[in-house]
Amino acid sequence: MKVSIVQFPGTNCEYDTRDAFQRLGATTEIVWHKAQILPENTDLLVIAGGFSYGDYLRCGAIARFSPIMKEVTTYANNGGTVLGICNGFQVLTEAGLLPGALKRNDNLHFISKHHHLKVINNDNIFLKKLPVNSIINIPIAHHDGNYFIDKNGLIELEKNNQILLKYTNAHGEIQNPNGSVKSIAGICNKDKNVFGLMPHPERAMELILGSDDGLAMIQGFLQ
Amino acid sequence: MIKAIVNISLKTGVLDSQGKAVHHALDSLDFKGVSDVRIGKQIILKLDTDDKMKGMKDVEKMCEELLANTVIEDYEIELV
């Protein structure tokens, strides 16, 4: 399994992400955003978290025009599997590879803490190891994670099982930290090959760090 | 040379949390009679052309492709 991780100026989760995939046995390669082609035999393309281009203009708005993004778009449109974590999710929405947009958190604060999430749909490669309605505990760390989509877009998401994760409390009741529409924390595209989420599974890989619930998510891609 | 002033703000119907917070602050400072506050950003561009039609067309394209995210934002262009 070959995982390629895109690095923009300002990306800061690429090494955690690399470590997460490596400890589960994947071969990894970090790809600088100026690369014109993706590494050969890439099985999974990850856009890691951080603050690409300092979040100037809007989060992900400028990264979207980096040279590598042409390749990312072609890869996704040809059915390749793409995962965007945090800033990666923002980049994918800006690039139009995922629907909706991410706004400033409703309370205007940067939120950095562990948060419970409920698995809403698992009929996809990403969450197939996790039962529907299971509760996991994963760190979130963002200022602009307030997911917005219009009414029609939301109907489409619900109809096609594209909502992956929602923010809840430990009992699975909705608890919305940032104002996201329907408390949405992660979605996928209609073809279920492009995934985006604000929480950081790569930061929940061992109990000593507070949670290893990220393992089952990362494993979904590898097995 | 033309100057283009682009004003970008969240669409009507998209909650503007910053605007709401400022509205609340104005209210607590006893500035009554404000019914709504919307916060946006302004981008000022100097264009090399003198052709207003072309300038407008170019800036519209810039807004659609980069300057605004039309999923959540509206933009207004003023040429001076």
Question: Can you walk me through this structure?
Answer:
The complex is a heterodimer of chains A (223) and B (80). Helices cover 21% and strands 26% of the residues of chain A. Chain A has 5 helices and 11 strands, in the order E-H-E-E-H-E-H-E-E-E-E-H-E-E-E-H. The mean pLDDT of chain A is 96. In chain B, strands 2-1-3 form a 3-stranded antiparallel β-sheet, covered by helices on one side. The longest helix of chain B is centred in the C-terminal third of the chain and has 16 residues, at 52-67. The model of chain B has no long low-confidence stretch (mean pLDDT 96). Chain A binds chain B through residues 57-58, 61-62, 65, 93-94, 100-101, 103-108, 146, 148-150, 179, and chain B through 10, 14-15, 17-18, 21, 66-67, 69, 71-72.
Structure classification of chain A: alpha/beta
The helix/strand series of chain A, from N terminus to C terminus, equals EHEEHEHEEEEHEEEH
Cα distance spanning the termini of chain B = 9 Å
Give the name of the CATH architecture of chain B: 2-Layer Sandwich
Q: Main beta sheet of chain B, described? A: 3 strands, antiparallel
Strand numbers in spatial order across the main sheet of chain A: 2-1-3-4-11-10-9-6-7
Number of domains of chain B: 1
